[in-house]
């Protein structure tokens, strides 16, 4: 071995010794630290158990009795009686029951999705000339309703997509403080006029009585203190904008809106009685049964804070009687209105200057035959004062309605065919003839 090799070997040995001297203590400390924390191990945290649906769980067996018998030849026979218990089916999370639903496996969260589609054909003419003949999508609605956070908190949403005019029909939230005290806030139907409060999927004829739109029925925005409509004693007290749910053109802002600059406001109350077993907000008696009755009175007051001189007071009484497939419903309306300028007087008036403006009434009946066919009849009168722009005329316009119908139920109220013929008798011996045929589906 030459001198060069010996030098290289010594240098390598020296470098190894220096490295060991410098790193040895730190390395020892690191090893000690690892020893204090323990050896590296795999994560032994158990995964949460997988919940097996009840339908897939095996049945359980319970021994009820066990008897042992000895035969003459000395052998024994044992008889065992076993009871087999199958697990109760788990609550479905998705399905269909009066609408499609989605719900949480635990807790109150629930969403129901439904809708209705009504295709209407209308033929209309007066005694002198033809007026119209057309098909239209009378209603195409998507509805959502559910509970959130607790059973006491509910909400609802309804969108109208028919007639080429998409718009919001309902949006409300409701909280039940107790069984008979609830508060609803949003856009919803006024608690006024049984026929208007009845869903369009459960009415007797394709079109409502002529009194319906004349006396303040419809939707509005506000709040309402109420209880359930199926309680023996039904009540509601609402405080509303008083301008309805339809959007109108705001000339100053050049946009459509159903939010007024100033609300009137409007107050509405309803008090009713429902005999046990009656569905007072279904104009047919598909369920049948012994005689049942529901009746109510409602009142509506505009307070004219917006100073448009359109304040009015109206009241109505309504009732429905059902027995063994027969349903008879009726209502009576009266109205007073703030005195307006007339052709002979243009003086200003205030809210308390009310005068009788008119009345209206209707009665209708239907009888369900074999849960399939239903003939129906309606008579109505609408008598209100007429207007010429902002001037109220002294004369009263009185219109009479006579309607007859024939309905066919394919799947209860969820799929039916409504046919209605109507004659309107107007002043000066004028008559209007109309026919309606509507296929209605609800889910």
Descriptive overview:
The protein is mainly beta and 443 residues long. It has one domain (115-442): Porin. Helices cover 9% and strands 53% of the residues. Strand 21 and strand 22 form a beta hairpin. It is elongated. Residues 1-52 have low confidence and may be disordered.
Write the layout of secondary structure elements.
Elements: H1 3-37, E1 60-70, E2 76-85, E3 94-96, E4 100-103, E5 110-126, E6 130-148, E7 150-160, E8 167-178, E9 181-189, H2 194-197, E10 219-226, E11 233-240, E12 248-250, E13 255-257, E14 266-274, E15 292-302, E16 312-323, E17 326-338, E18 354-367, E19 373-388, E20 391-409, E21 415-426, E22 430-442
Antiparallel strand pairs: 1-2, 3-4, 4-5, 5-6, 5-22, 6-7, 7-8, 8-9, 9-10, 10-11, 11-14, 12-13, 14-15, 15-16, 16-17, 17-18, 18-19, 19-20, 20-21, 21-22
Question: Which descriptors would you attach to this protein?
Answer:
443 residues; mainly beta; Porin; 16-stranded antiparallel beta barrel; two-stranded antiparallel sheet; 22 strands; elongated
- Radius of gyration, taken over Cα atoms and rounded to an integer in Å: 38 Å
* Assigned CATH architecture: Beta Barrel
CATH topology: Porin
Question: In CATH's first tier, which class applies?
Answer: Mainly Beta
Question: In whole angstroms, how far apart are the ends?
Answer: 102 Å
| Model regions low in confidence, pLDDT < 50 over at least 5 residues | 1-52
């Amino acid at each position: 071995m030459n001198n060069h090799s010996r030098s290289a070997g010594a240098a390598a040995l020296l470098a190894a010794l220096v490295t060991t001297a410098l790193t040895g203590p730190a390395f020892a400390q690191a090893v000690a630290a690892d020893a204090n924390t323990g050896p590296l191990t795999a994560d032994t945290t158990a995964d949460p158990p997988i919940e097996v649906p009840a339908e897939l769980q095996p049945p359980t067996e319970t021994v009820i009795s066990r008897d042992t018998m000895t035969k003459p030849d000395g052998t024994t026979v044992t008889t065992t009686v076993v009871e087999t218990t199958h697990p109760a089916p788990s609550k479905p999370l998705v399905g269909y029951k009066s609408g499609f639903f989605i719900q949480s496996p635990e807790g109150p969260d629930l969403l129901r999705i439904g809708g209705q589609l009504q295709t209407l054909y209308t033929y209309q003419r007066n005694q002198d000339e033809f007026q119209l003949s057309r098909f239209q999508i009378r209603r195409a609605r998507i509805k959502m309703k559910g509970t959130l956070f607790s059973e006491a908190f509910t909400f609802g949403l309804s969108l109208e997509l028919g007639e080429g005019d998409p718009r919001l029909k309902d949006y409300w939230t409701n909280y039940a403080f107790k069984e008979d005290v609830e508060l609803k806030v949003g856009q919803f139907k006024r608690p006024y006029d049984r026929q208007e409060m009845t869903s369009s999927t459960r009415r007797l004829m394709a079109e409502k009585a002529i009194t319906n739109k004349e006396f303040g029925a419809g939707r509005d925005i506000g709040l309402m203190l109420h209880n359930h409509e199926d309680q023996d004693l039904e009540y509601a007290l609402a405080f509303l904008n008083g301008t309805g749910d339809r959007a109108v053109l705001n000339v100053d802002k050049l946009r459509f809106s159903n939010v007024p600059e100033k609300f009137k406001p409007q107050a509405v109350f309803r008090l009713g009685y429902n005999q046990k077993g009656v569905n007072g907000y279904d104009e047919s008696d598909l369920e049948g049964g012994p005689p049942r009755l529901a009746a109510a009175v409602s009142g509506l007051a505009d307070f004219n804070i917006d100073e448009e001189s359109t304040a009015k007071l109206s009241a109505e009484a309504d009732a429905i009687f059902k027995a063994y497939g027969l349903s008879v419903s009726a209502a009576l309306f009266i109205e007073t209105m703030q005195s307006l300028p007339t052709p002979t007087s243009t003086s200003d008036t205030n809210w308390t200057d009310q005068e009788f403006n008119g009345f209206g009434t209707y009665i209708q009946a239907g009888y369900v035959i074999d849960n399939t066919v239903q003939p129906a009849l309606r008579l109505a009168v609408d008598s209100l004062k007429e207007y010429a722009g902002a001037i109220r005329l002294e004369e009263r316009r009185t219109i009479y309605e006579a309607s007859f119908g024939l309905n066919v139920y394919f799947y209860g109220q969820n799929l039916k065919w409504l046919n209605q013929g109507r004659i309107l008798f107007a002043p000066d011996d004028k008559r209007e003839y109309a026919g309606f045929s509507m296929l209605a589906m609800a889910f």
